[in-house]
Design a protein that fits this description.
mainly alpha, globular, two-stranded parallel sheet
Length: 143
């Protein structure tokens, strides 16, 4: 999700997606990553604040438009599936929660079939789960 807001390799590949389903954990993950970029010198503080506000408007919506991000609650069932996925696919905890959330979204809406990700391990796991994975093309090694 950070690529949707911060300019970095792959940003153009994700900005065209409109409404996106995410785990509710994105509410913490994205601002955390943006402010980490600021601490590491990749973003000025003003830019991090603006990008965080843009994310929050997409997440929460505002008086002019509804949210562009549909946040799935982190339920016990999602956590159980995430624990299983982390073992099967050697995923990091939050990556496993995002994939488990995508599986829950697809169970609720069978048209939810695309998984957007840049991490190779998570992409591979999503593809094995039957998702069409975007963006296409070669990516770097797993994190």
């Amino acid at each position: 999700m950070v690529k949707r807001y911060a300019d970095e390799a792959g940003s153009d590949d994700v900005r065209h997606f409109g409404t996106v389903v995410v785990s509710a954990l994105a509410r913490v993950e994205v601002p955390s990553a943006l402010w980490r970029k600021q601490r590491e010198g990749a973003l000025e503080a003003d830019a991090a604040a603006v990008l965080t506000a843009l994310f929050e408007a997409d997440y929460l919506g505002d008086e002019d438009r509804p949210p562009e991000l549909i946040a799935l609650a982190v339920t016990g069932a999602v956590l159980e599936e995430a624990a299983r996925l982390s073992a099967v696919h050697a995923l990091r905890a939050l990556d496993a929660v995002q994939l488990a959330s995508a599986l829950a979204a697809r169970a609720a809406d069978p048209d939810c079939t695309t998984f957007v990700c840049f991490d190779r391990r998570l992409r591979d796991a999503a593809a094995l789960a039957g998702f069409s994975v975007e963006p296409g093309g070669g990516l770097g090694p797993p994190r």
